[in-house]
Amino acid sequence: MRVVLGVTGGIAAYKAAHVLRGLRERGHAVRVVPTEAALRFVGAPTWEALSGEPVSTTVFEGVENVEHVRIGHEADLVVVAPATADLLARARGGMADDLLTATLLTATCPVVVAPAMHTEMWFNAATVDNVAALRARGWTVIEPASGRLTGADTGPGRLPEPDDIIRTALAATGRSAAPGPQDSPSAHGPLAGAAVVVSAGGTREPLDPVRFLGNRSSGKQGAALVAAAAAAGAQATLIAANVDSGVLAELPAAVAVEQVNTTAELEAACAAHASHADVIIMAAAVADYRPAAAAEHKMKKSGDDLTIALVENPDILRGLVELRDAGRARTGQLLVGFAAETGSHDGSAESLAQAKLLRKGCDLLVFNDVSGDRAFGRDDNAVVVYRAGTGGAEEVTRSEGSKADVSKDVIAAVAAERSR
């Protein structure tokens, strides 16, 4: 298939390189058509090297081949990622003042647009009208993701992850987004067709530009869980909070990855998935508190003790339960919590986990004892899965071994719970 990848001038332009690579790995020929502004973020040599095709922004190159008409005519699919507010406005108005907008005017194939901009720009009445008009013409305009934006703000406006863009774009042509049979979820697995979202890693709360409050979670267990979900046939998404790149690199290609940093970003990402996810597994280690205010500049030693005021973070799992109970989430959604406990004067680690299950209101809870340097950063784990029963917490299963083996048992428990 012949794909045109339009790239506009936003900070997210670097992610388009991953879209390009993913499309080529799936066997498609890709011609990149950037705007002049896009080349200020990622240069033409990068696009030419990754695509194997020439790059131009103007209608005055390749005139003998009538490029401004030919590229759109020959395309089987046009994807624009990122699409800025400016591009949406120019496309809605039918402008053709560069090669990309001319290509959009001449294309008769499916057009898929992935916007990326600041939250206020996305919600501005002009952008809302432009998006509605383009959708009315038959274009697919993907909703932007929620999370950390270019500055300190958080909210809708992030470019969706490359795999999500590829999946949506190829679906618009009736084609599969899977790279190959070896990476495809099982069509007959216990979670076949289910949308499963897993959070992993540990959130970080900034103290100043170089320091943060965090935890020791590596994200290995969450990554193993999302891989097991994909192997069981699920459409699997990982929301990764500061997960090591080496862990992410080992994920199956069928798993979509969204990266977040703070608890607020994780909360926004989970809420965005609540409307369509069949299962959400909250394996991430979420910071309970954050600094009341982060210092604008790096804090220096003063010779005095330092006192930092902390405020409580939102309870993401409980918030998801409330969304579901209020009818604002997918019907029949299964919510799975995690409890990493050490025990205290309030009770044993296991009793604290059981109390957490009942307090949160989730369907299942995975408990692991992290005292004595267990679980965090290791390749093995030992867990107990509980469900809420009429008499309190009921044990579903116990599992011990590698995190991959433990994940298979947890996913089996999830599948069994969905079929009850």
From TrEMBL:
Cofactor, how bound (note): Binds 1 FMN per subunit.
Signal peptide feature range: none
A Pfam family assignment: Flavoprotein
Chain spans, region Phosphopantothenate--cysteine ligase: 196-420
Start and end residues of each Flavoprotein domain: 1-170
UniProt key word Lyase: yes
Keyword Lyase: yes
Annotated region described as Phosphopantothenoylcysteine decarboxylase, given as residue ranges: 1-195
NCBIfam families, A to Z: coaBC_dfp (TIGR00521)
Protein name according to UniProt: Coenzyme A biosynthesis bifunctional protein CoaBC
Annotated source species: Brevibacterium jeotgali
